[in-house]
Amino acid sequence: MAVLEDAGRRYQRSSRTACAFALAAWASQPEPGATMGDLVHERQADAFAAEFLNPAASVVPELPARLNLHALDRVSRAWGVAIDSLVYRCHEVGRISGATYRRAFQRLGQLRQVGLFPEEPMNGYPGEVPVLLAQAFAVAEKHGLTLQDLARELKIPLPRLRLLLGSSDVRQALQLV
Predict the structure, then answer these.
(1) pLDDT band, residue 162 (cuts 50/70/90)
(2) Which of 34, 56, 127, 165 would give a disulfide with 30, using CB separation of 3.0 to 4.6 Å?
(3) Rounded mean pLDDT, 26-44
(4) Same domain, yes or no: 155 and 138
């Protein structure tokens, strides 16, 4: 199992895209004619990251017919990906031309310089809940594994393990009277 964490990034949507790209680059073998790390392999990793984070069958119907940054911002918030990623997706599926694609990034750069379309900080983003990890623990629990045993084995605090398993803190809340 691999766990990717992009601790160097401050912004949630670009961080998710970077992690998906890293996963693709790490897990994929270059197609014939490409070598690891070259431009063709990077494009393959970009395509994987786009499909992983916003599958064409689901996201394309939500994309505007013409370039509309406000509409893309709404879609980006719903899907948890950067507007930049959706501009790429629009171009990839033929919603916008190459010239419009280039102009979109120029316009985004200008708007960001004046404080519009800012990236959202990571601290406001809850992230994904790893479903398979919780399911694997449920099976192991039937065979006698406890949360405390697993936390000890993984060498992580129990509250962190609960968070990774998607469960809430079970401690009672204390109230001052």
Answers:
(1) confident
(2) 34
(3) 73
(4) yes
